[in-house]
Design brief:
about 350 residues, binds zinc ion
Length: about 350
């Protein structure tokens, strides 16, 4: 059984629409622990989200049910994807009546034209812009809100070994990813991603973009421009926690393989990160609990591309996320703590 709740008892099967109706019954009655429910709904989001579609309106219409749905924004997004305009209206009305984070997340998850118009209206009427931006949603000065991520998400798995010509290499020499390693603040290479393998990304002038590290454990942002080979140049590092010590790393190399979500992953504690070999995700929204970078040039919220744990190639501590501004050809890599 790939569903492994840490608390709340044995899992139930989710092998048919009737099983999903039984799970929604538990949500309605509130007779199971939120973490138990969350792990089941994460599995449903990763396997057969279409079976949840008949229940979208039931859950959204009842604030108590919505409050019990203890999920990551990434999973909520899959489950509420394309919910009806009536759902949008219900959420918008509740937000205007009494603004709350949970309703804003639910509205953010829907992703239809009506939902994106409602988000922009909400922010222009005083709703909390930061909550939307943390979920990867940008509200421009005029017009509807925009998703700054692709809804097509995949997991990243790591295979150790020597694969310098891999599509998604792990552990390249720094001169392959930055134009001038002698002056660059970049001190580590985690992963280069071939962007053509990530559906829904904006156009980009290079084949690959790079997740790199700086000599700091956590909480930093690197902005860079790209040269014609896709290497980083004009790097600007912003540190929240600076360290004078050299942080050590594990120089193992390997390759990343992108895999779809599905029933072969291990769903535990509401996520798949405990699946052997899984080290992150490409596509999907950002983590949703930290500010996401805005482009230093045009100020647009940057496009979230991938998030990996430092375990992909041990160096520093926490999550490393990659963002693009397709208009300015600028990248950002951020380092944040565990959520
Ligand atoms: Zn820009």
């Amino acid at each position: 059984m790939p569903i492994k709740p840490l608390r709340g008892g044995e899992p139930i099967p989710l092998d048919s629409p009737d099983d999903v109706a039984a799970l929604v019954g538990h949500l309605s009655r509130g007779d199971r622990e939120p973490a138990w429910l969350g792990t089941h709904f994460a599995y449903l989001a990763g396997t057969r989200p279409e079976w949840f579609q008949p229940h979208q309106e039931t859950v959204i219409a009842d604030p108590r049910l919505l409050a019990r749905l203890d999920l990551s924004f990434a999973d909520l997004r899959v489950l509420f994807d394309g919910a009806s305009d009536r759902c949008v209206e219900l959420l918008y009305r509740r937000l205007r009546d009494r603004w709350s984070f949970g309703e804003a997340w639910a509205l953010s998850a829907i992703g239809t034209d009506a939902a994106l118009v409602a988000i922009a209206d909400d922010v222009r009427q005083g709703g909390d812009r930061e909550v939307y931006e943390e979920s990867g949603i940008w509200i421009p000065p005029a017009g509807p809100a925009e998703y700054r991520f692709t809804p097509h998400r995949q997991v990243i798995t790591l295979e150790a070994g020597d694969f310098p010509a891999a599509d998604h290499p792990v552990g390249l020499p720094l001169d392959r990813v930055v134009r001038d390693p002698s002056t660059s603040p970049v001190s580590w290479h985690y992963l280069s991603l071939r962007l053509a393998d990530i559906p829904g990304l904006p156009a980009w002038p290079a084949t690959h973009a790079h997740l790199i590290g700086l000599n700091s454990w956590c909480m930093w942002t690197l902005f860079a421009e790209v040269d014609s080979d896709g290497r980083y140049e004009a790097e600007q590092a912003v540190f929240e926690d600076e360290t004078d010590d050299e942080i050590g790393g594990d120089p193992t190399t390997g390759r990343a393989v992108l895999r779809p979500y599905g029933p072969d992953l291990l769903y535990c504690n509401g996520h798949v990160d405990l699946t052997p070999g899984v080290v992150g995700t490409v596509g999907g929204p950002p983590l949703g609990i930290y500010p996401n970078p805005s482009c230093p040039s045009c100020k647009r919220l940057m496009f979230h591309t991938a998030t990996v744990s430092h375990h992909i190639r041990e160096y520093g501590d926490g999550w490393r996320s990659l963002y693009l501004c397709e208009d300015c050809h600028t990248v950002a890599v951020t380092a944040t703590g565990w959520n």
